[in-house]
Structure formats: C-alpha cells, structure tokens
Amino acid sequence: MLFAVDAAAEREGLRPGMALADARAIAPALRTLPAQPADDAAALARLAAWCGRWSPWTAPDLSVEPVGIGGGGLWLDATGCAHLFGGEAVMLAEIVGRLEALGFAARAAMAETPGCAWAVARYAASARPWTAVPEGGGRAALEPLPVAALRLGAGDVAALHALGLKRVGDLMQTPRAPLARRFGTRLAGRLDAALGLRAEPVSPLSAEAAHAALRGFAEPVGRIEDIAAALDALLDELCAGLEAAACGARRLALTLYRPDGTVACLRVGTARPARDPRHLARLFAEKLETVEAAFGIEAMALRAEVTEPLGAEQAELDGAAREAAADALDRLVDRLGNRLGAANVRRVALRASHLPERAAVLAPVGRAAEAAPAETEHPCMPPRPLRLFRPPEPVEAIAAAEEAPVLFRWRRAEHRIVRAEGPERIAPEWWRAHPSESAASRDYYRVEDTCGRRFWLYRESGPQTVRWYLHGLFG
C-alpha cells in the first residue's frame, strides 16, 4: 500500500492508501521505497521544535488513520503570537514559505479550534496553500468539507457515505440520537470539538515557559560574538521579567533556529534561583563554543524552564552589587555543574545517624539538606576529628579493662599514649542490624602520642573478644 506520494505521482493519479498493484497498473515505471514511520515521526518532532520560532507551543501530529491522508502534520498554538509577525495571514504565509524552501509540500490553516484548523488545512479547496478562518467562521468553513475532515476512521466514513451523509454540513443537520445509537459518542465528540463545543487538549512538545524572550535576525548570523551579543540582550529582557515577578531561574534553555530546519538547544542550570544576566551569560559561554552555525542562526529563543521565588537583592550604597562569599560559592557550583554535570557536583549532607561513618552522605548540590540529628547539634558534644577513615582501620592496642590504651600499633608503627580523654559510648543502631554489620557498642577515646599527634580510637567489645579500631585523625 502506498503510504505517501510525491508531486509527480499525484499527477499520475496516485494517492496514499492505494494498493501497490493498482499503482503499478497505472504507472508501470513507479519507483518505491519502504515506508519508515519511525524516522518520519522523528523528523516531524525535529520540525515541530524548529517551528518554535513562531510559537512556544508546538507539537507533531502523527495522525494517519483518516481516509486518503498520508504523512503527518504540525500543531502550533498561535494564541498571542500572530501579531508579532504582522498578523495571521502574514504568519501563515511565512510558515508555508519557509517549509517549502526546505523541500516540504505544506498546507496550513488557522482557526479557533484544533479540529477546524486540521480539517481546513487538509480538505478546504483554496488557491492559496494557507487559510485563515475568521473569528466565528468555523461552522461555515466546516460545512462544505467531507466527513473525513473530522478525523474519523475508514469504517465510520464508509458507513456515513452509505447513509448519504458525505459532508460535515449533512451531519450538522442530522439529529444526534440516531447517529449516537449507531456510531456511539465518537462522531458527536469529533464534531463538537471542531465547533468548539468541547475542549480538545493537545500536548505540546515541551512545556510552555512562563518567562521567555525571542529575537530574530534579518539575515542569519554565524559569528559566536554576534550570537553572544544577542544572548546578552535576551538575558537582560528575561531577567527583567523575572525580577518583576519576584522569581529567579533554576534552569534556562536557549534554542537556536537554523535556516535548514534544524535547531540547537543549550541548557544550563543553577544551584539556587538566579537572575543576574552576567552570571547566566558566563554559564552559556562554554556551551556556545559547541554550536554548529555553518548556515547561520536566524532566530534565538531563551526560556526559563524552571523558576523559583526570589526576593529583592541587597545592594551597597554606591550601587555596586554585594559579592558575598555564599554568592561566590553558588556561582562556582553553577559553573562546575554545567561543565561536569549537576549530578557530579556534590556536597556533604548530614544524615540522621549517630554512627560517625553513617552521619554524612554525599548529595547533589542544590537538593534540600536533610535535617541534622539532634545529637549533632548539641553544644556539649565532644569534638570530632577532621579526617575519618571509612571503614575504620583495625589496630593492635594494649589497654587495661575498661581503660584507655597506653600503646597501639597502626600501619607497622607504634604509638605510645601520653594523654587520653574518654570514653564516649556510642550504641549500635539496632534498627539497622544486619548480619554483616557489628551490633556491639563502641567506647571512643581521644588520645595523643609522644610526638603530639592526636587520634580517635574506639574499643568494640564482643561476647568473648575485644577489638580496637582507629576511626579518625585530629588536625
């Protein structure tokens, strides 16, 4: 079966859905290639992303079920966008013209509902490849169209033709009850959606951003310096909108539209909400070097995909921004995260456990810190060493029963103890007991040897044995 045909095949009378044997009988010299629906779907998705230069809300339409329709289409929500391009007619003409320049045979329509636009674009007889249905004119535009324009299946279309209902206008004049008994609710649902009597949601390719900025060029630009200058202007505009809304960006997406129908998307993230244009420009700087702009860039769009509340920033009396140590650390984390990946930049976070080796965990920067255990925050807690061994290293120690050690051997070196503090009893976490984990209590000692080095030792007493471990070193 023919899945799609080109202009030359159409002139020979071939149509999508025709059997291959019938097509060869009409055109013996017909050349065919295997259909590749998966590749077509991927190409439509890329084309839908490229159409984001006209609207932030785009999606591919992969519907091929209706009779006589081959290939797919694109959805664009032009609400609030048409006036930016000179009106609906100018916008449609530009869209069709650019698609034809890329080698696509395209037809377009703009209407108040997706169903009406879909029907008019594919079935309306017009000398122009685009049609703008005026406000309130959806019913008049649908009446002369065939019933297949309602995106009905082949069986429903054949059954309606057998009843003498060939136009959408015929369905509008037919009582609903007999049609519902035979076709169920799908026929009335399609008609009501096309007329705007029922909502018809269509999922966009990407979520619409609350804050965005768009800039087009009279001629494609290819120099990185020109792209960076345009990005600075977009950041100034976007950050001004973020400041007015008292929020900051956590993730930004910069989309670069090329004349050949492809796009390049650069994304950066921040550890905390940010709206400083200079800082955000530095995050994009390294990524701009990777952009391939052989054919130039004809439009750029900057969107804040994730935002969070951010209050007013304090400034010095002379107007210079305050560069606090915390801000400098946040900017360093942002640069490292965008260069190495946010998951590869981690911080030490406290965990609710009183065992030293379990009391801290590496967590991605930017994730909310977990609540610290109450004993960690207690002002009377004994000091902890700066360096911990994980796991603790076993040592040989000489000590009287229930007393601090007087000598221990670690890594083939003997250390004679001259001072000791302790013990500090740390009980096991019985609720985490595991056969591979020790369930004995620990008695910790802070000791100092003859050379002034300080160690953190503990004794682990079992039913019949006593073991000593070195857990940390004091500075």
Report the uncertain regions.
Answer: 368-377
Helix content: 25-40%
Please identify the structural class as seen in this structure. alpha+beta
Number of discrete helical segments: 13
Instruction: Work out the number of β strands.
Output: 16
Radius of gyration, taken over Cα atoms and rounded to an integer in Å: 35 Å
Note the gap between the termini.
Answer: 79 Å
Q: pLDDT average, as an integer?
A: 86
Helix-strand string? HHHEEHEHEHHHHHEHEEHEHEEEEEEEE
The main β sheet shows up as:
6 strands, antiparallel, barrel
The coarse silhouette is: elongated
> Which range does the strand content fall in?
25-35%
Instruction: Tell me the strand order in the biggest sheet.
Output: 11-12-13-14-15-16
Number of structurally distinct domains: 5
Protein model, in words:
- This protein is α+β, with helices and mostly antiparallel strands and 475 residues long.
- The chain has 5 domains: 1-35, no CATH class; 40-195, no CATH class; 211-313 and 325-340, Dna Ligase, domain 1; 345-381, no CATH class; 382-473, no CATH class.
- 29% of the residues lie in helices and 27% in strands.
- The chain is built from 13 helices and 16 strands.
- The strands form 5 sheets. Strands 11-12-13-14-15-16 form a 6-stranded antiparallel β-barrel. Strands 5-8-6-7 form a 4-stranded antiparallel β-sheet, with helices on both faces.
- Helix 11 (224-244) runs antiparallel to helix 12 and helix 12 (277-288) runs parallel beside helix 13 (325-340).
- The chain is elongated and about 105 Å long.
- The N and C termini lie far apart (79 Å).
- Mean pLDDT is 86; it is low at 368-377.
